[in-house]
Design brief:
- The chain is an alpha/beta fold.
- It is built from 15 helices and eight strands.
C-alpha cells in the first residue's frame, strides 16, 4: 500500500520524468571516465562506432580481451558496474551498437539489422581489439555474440550470453506479445516492462517512466523490432537473423548461458530454447534476477565471466 502510494506520487513529476534517465546516464558516463575508461570512436563496417576502453589491471592477461555488447534500447553504459571487475581478466571494450548510445547508424538507414550489428562487432575485433576475445552479450547483444560465434568462430575465444534474444521459437506468433509491449503506447506498458525486466523493480524507476518510454520509442528500436519480427516469417531463417535449434548446435566455441530467474521480458520458452540447444554450454541461473544481470547482479556476472575466462585460457 505504501509502495503504491509512493509510485503514484513519483508519477506526478512528469517534466522530471522526461530527463531522469538522460541525467543518470550522463552521471554514469562521468563516473566511468573518472574510473579510468576512455571514450573512443572509430569507423567500423562503415558505421561511426563509439566504445569505451579500459586497459587491463596489473596481473591481468593482455591476451584475453573482453568485449561487452549491450541489448535493445540500451547502451555501453549498462556495463558501468562490471567494467572495472572485467579489467582483472584483460583489456575491456564496451561498444555502443549502431543506432544506440553515441554510435551512428548505417548510411541511409534508420536502424541496423542483426547482420549489420554483427558486422560492426566483427570489424571491432579485427581492427581495434586485434585478437580473438571473450564476447559478453546481454539480450540483443547476446544474439549478436552468438551469431558472430556461429559465423566467425576464429574471432572469439568464447561467448557468455546473458538472457540472449534471437530464439525463433514459433516464429512471428511467439514474438507478437513482445512487439506489443515494447511499442510502449502508454505508461502502463512501461510499468509492465519494468516488472518483466527486473527481479525487483527499483523504486526510482517510477520517477523515470517517460524517459524510459522514450528509449523504446526511438526509431532505431522501433524499426529494428518491426523488421526483425517481420523477418521471422521468412522461409530463410538464416537471412532473418533468428536462430533455429540447428544453428545453436553448430556453435563450436566455449559458451556459458547466464539467465535471470525472474526474466519474463523475452517470449516464453526463450531460456529453454538456448538451454537445450547450446552444445556443452555451462548454464547459470541467477536467483531473484531479471533480464539485466549486469545491472542487478554485477558482482555475480563479473565472477562468472572471470571463471569462464579461466576455463577458456586452457582451451587450445
Amino acid at each position: 500500500m505504501v509502495e503504491n502510494e509512493l509510485r503514484r506520487r513519483l508519477e506526478l513529476g512528469t517534466p522530471l520524468s522526461r530527463v531522469v534517465i538522460p541525467i543518470a546516464l550522463g552521471l554514469t558516463r562521468r563516473v566511468l571516465l573518472r574510473a579510468g575508461a576512455t571514450s573512443e570512436e572509430r569507423r567500423l563496417a562503415d558505421v561511426l562506432t563509439h566504445y569505451y576502453h579500459r586497459v587491463g589491471r596489473p596481473g591481468s592477461d593482455p591476451a584475453t580481451p573482453v568485449v561487452l555488447i549491450h541489448g535493445i534500447a540500451d547502451s555501453a553504459l549498462t556495463w558501468a558496474f562490471t567494467i572495472g571487475g572485467m579489467a582483472r581478466i584483460g583489456p575491456v571494450y564496451a561498444l555502443d551498437l549502431p543506432g544506440f548510445g553515441q554510435s551512428g547508424s548505417p548510411a541511409g538507414k534508420r536502424f541496423a539489422s542483426i547482420a549489420e550489428q554483427t558486422a560492426v562487432v566483427a570489424a571491432m575485433l579485427r581492427e581495434v581489439v586485434g585478437r580473438p576475445a571473450i564476447l559478453v552479450g546481454n539480450s540483443m547483444g547476446g544474439w549478436v555474440a552468438a551469431r558472430l560465434a556461429l559465423e566467425a568462430p576464429e574471432l572469439t575465444r568464447g561467448i557468455v550470453l546473458l538472457d540472449p534474444g534471437g530464439a525463433l521459437l514459433e516464429g512471428r506468433a511467439s514474438w507478437e506479445p513482445f512487439v506489443n509491449t515494447v511499442a510502449v503506447p502508454d505508461l502502463r506498458a512501461v510499468r509492465a516492462i519494468y516488472r518483466q525486466m527486473f527481479g525487483r523493480v527499483p523504486l526510482p524507476l517510477y520517477l523515470a517512466q517517460h524517459s524510459f518510454q522514450a528509449l523504446f520509442l526511438r526509431e532505431s528500436v522501433r524499426e529494428f523490432v518491426r523488421a526483425s519480427v517481420e523477418a521471422a516469417d521468412l522461409d530463410d531463417i538464416t537471412a532473418s537473423g533468428f536462430f533455429a535449434p540447428a544453428d545453436l548446435r553448430r556453435i563450436s566455441v566455449p559458451t556459458t548461458l547466464i539467465w535471470g530467474e525472474r526474466d519474463t521480458f523475452l517470449p516464453p520458452g526463450s531460456f529453454e530454447f538456448f538451454r537445450d540447444n547450446l552444445p556443452g554450454a555451462q548454464i547459470r541461473v541467477l536467483k531473484g534476477c531479471g533480464h539485466l544481470p549486469q545491472r542487478e547482479a554485477p558482482r555475480a556476472v563479473v565472477r562468472l565471466v572471470s571463471q569462464f575466462a579461466e576455463r577458456v585460457r586452457h582451451v587450445k
